[in-house]
Amino acid sequence: MGSWMRSHDTFRRHAKGILDGIRTLDQTTFLTALGKSPKVLREQFEKWHNNMGSHERYEESRLYPFAARRWDVDTRYLTSEHGTMHSQRDLVLGLFAQLLNFEGTPAQYGTPALACAVAKLEATMADYELYVCVHLAEEEEFIVPMFLELTVEEYKDYEDLGLTELFRKMDQQDKANGVKTKGKRR
Protein backbone atom coordinates (compact mmCIF):
# COMPACT_ATOMS: atom_id res chain seq x y z
CA MET A 1 0.00 0.00 0.00
CA GLY A 2 2.92 2.31 0.61
CA SER A 3 3.99 2.46 -3.02
CA TRP A 4 0.35 2.91 -4.06
CA MET A 5 0.03 5.93 -1.73
CA ARG A 6 3.36 7.35 -2.93
CA SER A 7 2.09 7.07 -6.52
CA HIS A 8 -0.95 9.12 -5.54
CA ASP A 9 1.28 11.80 -4.02
CA THR A 10 3.39 11.86 -7.19
CA PHE A 11 0.28 12.20 -9.38
CA ARG A 12 -0.89 15.18 -7.29
CA ARG A 13 2.51 16.87 -7.65
CA HIS A 14 2.56 16.30 -11.42
CA ALA A 15 -0.96 17.71 -11.84
CA LYS A 16 -0.06 20.81 -9.81
CA GLY A 17 3.24 21.30 -11.62
CA ILE A 18 1.65 21.16 -15.06
CA LEU A 19 -1.17 23.49 -14.03
CA ASP A 20 1.34 25.91 -12.48
CA GLY A 21 3.33 25.80 -15.74
CA ILE A 22 0.26 26.68 -17.79
CA ARG A 23 -0.62 29.49 -15.38
CA THR A 24 2.85 31.03 -15.71
CA LEU A 25 3.07 30.80 -19.50
CA ASP A 26 4.35 34.09 -20.93
CA GLN A 27 2.46 34.62 -24.15
CA THR A 28 5.26 36.70 -25.66
CA THR A 29 8.18 34.35 -25.04
CA PHE A 30 6.01 31.21 -25.07
CA LEU A 31 7.84 29.97 -21.96
CA THR A 32 6.74 29.29 -18.39
CA ALA A 33 8.30 30.93 -15.34
CA LEU A 34 10.62 27.89 -15.17
CA GLY A 35 11.59 28.27 -18.84
CA LYS A 36 9.51 25.37 -20.16
CA SER A 37 7.70 25.51 -23.46
CA PRO A 38 4.11 24.29 -23.90
CA LYS A 39 5.59 21.35 -25.82
CA VAL A 40 7.60 20.32 -22.75
CA LEU A 41 4.50 20.70 -20.56
CA ARG A 42 2.55 18.46 -22.94
CA GLU A 43 5.34 15.87 -22.88
CA GLN A 44 5.32 15.92 -19.07
CA PHE A 45 1.53 15.55 -19.12
CA GLU A 46 1.78 12.54 -21.47
CA LYS A 47 4.51 10.90 -19.37
CA TRP A 48 2.45 11.42 -16.23
CA HIS A 49 -0.50 9.76 -17.95
CA ASN A 50 1.53 6.78 -19.05
CA ASN A 51 2.45 6.26 -15.38
CA MET A 52 -1.16 6.76 -14.28
CA GLY A 53 -2.28 4.22 -16.88
CA SER A 54 -0.08 1.53 -15.34
CA HIS A 55 -1.37 2.48 -11.90
CA GLU A 56 -5.00 2.28 -13.06
CA ARG A 57 -4.43 -1.11 -14.68
CA TYR A 58 -3.10 -2.40 -11.33
CA GLU A 59 -6.11 -1.02 -9.51
CA GLU A 60 -8.63 -2.38 -12.00
CA SER A 61 -7.02 -5.81 -12.39
CA ARG A 62 -5.97 -6.50 -8.80
CA LEU A 63 -6.83 -3.95 -6.11
CA TYR A 64 -10.50 -3.37 -6.95
CA PRO A 65 -11.37 -7.04 -7.63
CA PHE A 66 -9.71 -8.05 -4.34
CA ALA A 67 -11.57 -5.35 -2.39
CA ALA A 68 -14.84 -6.36 -4.05
CA ARG A 69 -14.32 -10.02 -3.17
CA ARG A 70 -12.84 -9.58 0.30
CA TRP A 71 -15.27 -6.97 1.63
CA ASP A 72 -18.21 -7.47 -0.78
CA VAL A 73 -18.06 -3.83 -1.90
CA ASP A 74 -18.84 -2.30 -5.25
CA THR A 75 -15.78 -0.73 -6.86
CA ARG A 76 -17.24 -0.19 -10.32
CA TYR A 77 -17.68 3.54 -9.70
CA LEU A 78 -13.91 3.88 -9.25
CA THR A 79 -13.30 2.23 -12.63
CA SER A 80 -15.93 4.52 -14.15
CA GLU A 81 -14.08 7.52 -12.74
CA HIS A 82 -10.95 6.32 -14.53
CA GLY A 83 -12.95 6.48 -17.78
CA THR A 84 -14.02 10.04 -17.00
CA MET A 85 -10.40 10.96 -16.31
CA HIS A 86 -9.39 9.54 -19.71
CA SER A 87 -12.01 11.71 -21.42
CA GLN A 88 -10.78 14.77 -19.56
CA ARG A 89 -7.18 13.86 -20.40
CA ASP A 90 -8.11 13.81 -24.08
CA LEU A 91 -9.64 17.29 -23.78
CA VAL A 92 -6.44 18.62 -22.21
CA LEU A 93 -4.31 16.99 -24.93
CA GLY A 94 -6.54 18.53 -27.62
CA LEU A 95 -6.12 21.97 -26.08
CA PHE A 96 -2.35 21.47 -25.85
CA ALA A 97 -2.41 20.66 -29.59
CA GLN A 98 -4.30 23.87 -30.31
CA LEU A 99 -1.87 25.89 -28.22
CA LEU A 100 1.14 24.34 -29.95
CA ASN A 101 -0.18 25.71 -33.26
CA PHE A 102 0.88 29.14 -31.95
CA GLU A 103 4.45 28.09 -31.13
CA GLY A 104 7.05 29.88 -33.21
CA THR A 105 4.64 32.46 -34.65
CA PRO A 106 2.19 33.50 -31.92
CA ALA A 107 1.80 37.02 -33.39
CA GLN A 108 0.50 35.52 -36.63
CA TYR A 109 -2.67 34.40 -34.86
CA GLY A 110 -3.23 37.53 -32.77
CA THR A 111 -3.09 38.14 -29.06
CA PRO A 112 -6.81 37.43 -28.40
CA ALA A 113 -6.65 33.99 -30.02
CA LEU A 114 -3.53 33.04 -28.07
CA ALA A 115 -4.97 34.39 -24.81
CA CYS A 116 -8.16 32.36 -25.35
CA ALA A 117 -6.20 29.19 -26.14
CA VAL A 118 -4.14 29.56 -22.95
CA ALA A 119 -7.24 30.38 -20.87
CA LYS A 120 -9.13 27.33 -22.20
CA LEU A 121 -6.19 25.05 -21.50
CA GLU A 122 -5.73 26.47 -18.00
CA ALA A 123 -9.44 26.11 -17.12
CA THR A 124 -9.66 22.58 -18.50
CA MET A 125 -6.46 21.52 -16.75
CA ALA A 126 -7.71 23.07 -13.48
CA ASP A 127 -10.93 21.05 -13.76
CA TYR A 128 -8.93 17.95 -14.57
CA GLU A 129 -6.49 18.44 -11.68
CA LEU A 130 -9.43 18.84 -9.28
CA TYR A 131 -11.13 15.68 -10.57
CA VAL A 132 -7.93 13.62 -10.31
CA CYS A 133 -7.15 14.86 -6.79
CA VAL A 134 -10.70 14.20 -5.55
CA HIS A 135 -10.61 10.71 -7.12
CA LEU A 136 -7.28 9.92 -5.44
CA ALA A 137 -8.57 11.09 -2.05
CA GLU A 138 -11.75 9.07 -2.55
CA GLU A 139 -9.73 5.92 -3.29
CA GLU A 140 -7.57 6.47 -0.23
CA GLU A 141 -10.54 7.05 2.06
CA PHE A 142 -12.30 3.95 0.71
CA ILE A 143 -9.47 1.44 0.21
CA VAL A 144 -6.91 2.16 2.94
CA PRO A 145 -9.18 1.50 5.96
CA MET A 146 -10.17 -1.88 4.51
CA PHE A 147 -6.56 -2.90 3.93
CA LEU A 148 -5.67 -1.90 7.48
CA GLU A 149 -8.15 -4.59 8.61
CA LEU A 150 -6.13 -7.35 6.93
CA THR A 151 -4.07 -9.70 9.04
CA VAL A 152 -0.38 -9.96 8.24
CA GLU A 153 -1.04 -13.30 6.54
CA GLU A 154 -3.89 -11.90 4.44
CA TYR A 155 -1.76 -8.96 3.30
CA LYS A 156 1.15 -11.27 2.49
CA ASP A 157 -1.21 -13.42 0.42
CA TYR A 158 -2.49 -10.32 -1.36
CA GLU A 159 1.06 -9.30 -2.21
CA ASP A 160 2.39 -12.74 -3.12
CA LEU A 161 -0.39 -14.73 -4.79
CA GLY A 162 -1.91 -14.35 -8.20
CA LEU A 163 -5.51 -13.16 -8.10
CA THR A 164 -6.99 -16.53 -9.15
CA GLU A 165 -4.94 -18.35 -6.53
CA LEU A 166 -5.79 -15.72 -3.92
CA PHE A 167 -9.54 -16.04 -4.62
CA ARG A 168 -9.29 -19.83 -4.50
CA LYS A 169 -7.59 -19.64 -1.09
CA MET A 170 -10.22 -17.18 0.16
CA ASP A 171 -12.99 -19.50 -1.06
CA GLN A 172 -11.36 -22.46 0.73
CA GLN A 173 -11.08 -20.46 3.95
CA ASP A 174 -14.73 -19.40 3.68
CA LYS A 175 -15.76 -23.03 3.14
CA ALA A 176 -13.67 -24.21 6.10
CA ASN A 177 -15.31 -21.56 8.28
CA GLY A 178 -18.79 -22.54 7.11
CA VAL A 179 -19.26 -19.29 5.24
CA LYS A 180 -20.98 -19.40 1.90
CA THR A 181 -18.43 -18.22 -0.65
CA LYS A 182 -19.21 -14.66 -1.56
CA GLY A 183 -18.22 -15.29 -5.13
CA LYS A 184 -18.95 -11.69 -6.10
CA ARG A 185 -16.26 -10.37 -8.36
CA ARG A 186 -17.06 -6.84 -9.32
Question: What are the defining features of this structure?
Answer:
elongated, mainly alpha, 186 residues
Characterise this structure:
By secondary structure, this protein is mainly alpha-helical. 78% of the residues lie in helices and 0% in strands. The protein is built from 7 helices and no strands. It has helices spanning 2-23, 38-71, 76-100, 106-109, 111-148, 152-160, 163-176. Helix 1 (2-23) packs antiparallel against helix 2 (38-71), helix 1 (2-23) runs antiparallel to helix 5 (111-148) and helix 3 (76-100) runs antiparallel to helix 5 (111-148). The longest helix has 38 residues, at 111-148. The protein is elongated, with a radius of gyration of 21 Å. The model has no long low-confidence stretch (mean pLDDT 91).
Helix and strand topology:
Elements: H1 2-23, H2 38-71, H3 76-100, H4 106-109, H5 111-148, H6 152-160, H7 163-176
Helix pairs in contact: 1-2, 1-5, 2-3, 3-5
Strand content: under 5%
Distance between the termini: 21 Å
> Low-confidence segments, ≥5 residues, pLDDT <50?
none
Order of helices and strands: HHHHHHH
**Shape, please?**
elongated
For the largest beta-sheet, the strand count, sense and barrel status come to: none
Broad structural category: mainly alpha
Percentage of helical residues? over 70%
- Overall number of strands: 0
Number of helices: 7
pLDDT averaged over residues: 91
Radius of gyration: 21 Å
Short note summarizing the structure:
This protein is mainly α. It has helices at 2-23, 38-71, 76-100, 106-109, 111-148, 152-160, 163-176.
